Model the fold of this input.
Amino acid sequence: MPATSAVPPATRLDPKTDQYGSYVSQDAGIVIGCCSRSGSSLFRVMLDSHPKFAVGQGSRIFVETPDPQRLVNNFGVTREYVDELLATSQDQAHFIERFMRGLAQREDKPIWGDKAPPNIYYIPYIFEHFPNARFIHIIRDGRDVVCSLRTHPKFKYENGRTIELNTWKPIENCITSWVNYTRKGLAARGQAGYYEVHYEELVQQPEQTMRKVVEFLGEEWDDRVLRYHELESTTRDFTAMPVSADAVEPISHKALARWQRDMTDEDKQIFKDKAGDLLIELGYATDNDW
Done:
């Protein structure tokens, strides 16, 4: 059966209609979301290095109708396998459960995880259909996020070679993205399965930060989490996502406070006007005098 007809329109993820199907999974999966360029790729590789967690490259199956070819490209599964799961799943949540379980079993790990920035917009859906899930929100200084978003992506991978791009986005759009994504995540504060990780703490205090994460997930600590850059895995092939290739390199502090180098006085004022209050709320500034 063609994959395009396997999932009825009524079960597709649509934030306007909220029609996702009725299946409820008891899996305690890990779902990661954030504003893009917040460090989620580094975080997911570190978490994936733990012997209990299988956290591969983003599937986007929580945020859109499953794209069979994307899943084939990113996860090394066959098109026939994806089509069969689509054709025999009750709805989107049932497909997610079965697909993610399969990936974890392939890695011989008991707990699956998914990382995609837009997951942040589907926290209500995730907790409704995966009540035992743990959602991890990665938060980063919005000024640094905006500087990174502005030039993202810097290159693409095509026909076996890296092609540089000259991306330059309006700063207003980048600021709006950071505010909207971050606010969506903060709205889930207080829910038992919700947890926040600040990028700055992750790179400056990696062991302390990741020990708390592993404890939150209910597992024992394993030093392989810190040796993530020494390990090999089928989940580390970044040829399909070269913009995140540095996530398999040792931790660097070079991206911290990059706004001090990259932002003009005009940029700073625009940010203060549009997002200064959120920056203060998150503890990255005490006032707008920066």
